[in-house]
Amino acid sequence: MSSPFPSIYSAIKFAVEAITDGMRRELMPFGIDVISIAPGPVKTPIWGKGKLQTAAYEDNRYSSILARLDTYTEKANAGGLEPEVVAAAILNALEDHRQRPDQLVTKRGWMAKLVLRLPKRLQDRLIRGNLDNDRRY
Fold first, then answer.
1. How far is residue 50's CA from residue 1's CA, in Å, rounded to a whole number?
2. What is the 3-state secondary structure (H, E, C) of the chain?
3. What is the torsion angle, in degrees rounded to the nearest 10, for the CA atoms of residue 10, residue 12, residue 14 and residue 18?
4. pLDDT tens digits, one per residue of 23-41
């Protein structure tokens, strides 16, 4: 799911998913399986980097949103997965040969799956409402 502001990051993740699907289908005749592990927010230092890269957005139309960036990133980090959870999912995928080809690893995977089934405009309104109310999800 693409969130406001890390659009390029989301595009890269979608591209990786497309490559994964294509490679799985290309390599299937050779008995090689390719799967995607897609973690949600993970507790890593990346969340603090957003605070350091905001100077270009000060004093413009994004200023009001920028003021809420700290809260957004702090909540994403606080609610994120421990890196060990993602590592365990990867290890499980390596050991279990009957894995789903696309695995979402997140605390509220059911919510993401539900939102993705909604019409795009409704998704937009939900994300905007969360942004306006300083909520991550």
1. 19
2. CCCCCCHHHHHHHHHHHHHHHHHHHHHHHHCCCCCEEEECCECCCHHHHHHHCCHHHCCCCCHHHHCCHHHHHHHHHHCCECHHHHHHHHHHHHHCCCCCCEEEECCCHHHHHHHHHCCHHHHHHHHHHHHHCCCCC
3. 180
4. 999 999 999 999 999 888 8
Phi, psi of 116 (to 5 degrees): -65, -20
The model's pTM is: 0.69
Q: What are phi and psi of 18, to 5 degrees?
A: -65, -40
Residue 9 among the catalytic residues: yes
β-bridge pairing 36-39 and 102-105: parallel
Question: Catalytic pick from 9, 57, 62, 137?
Answer: 9
Residue 49 to residue 136: CA distance in whole angstroms: 17
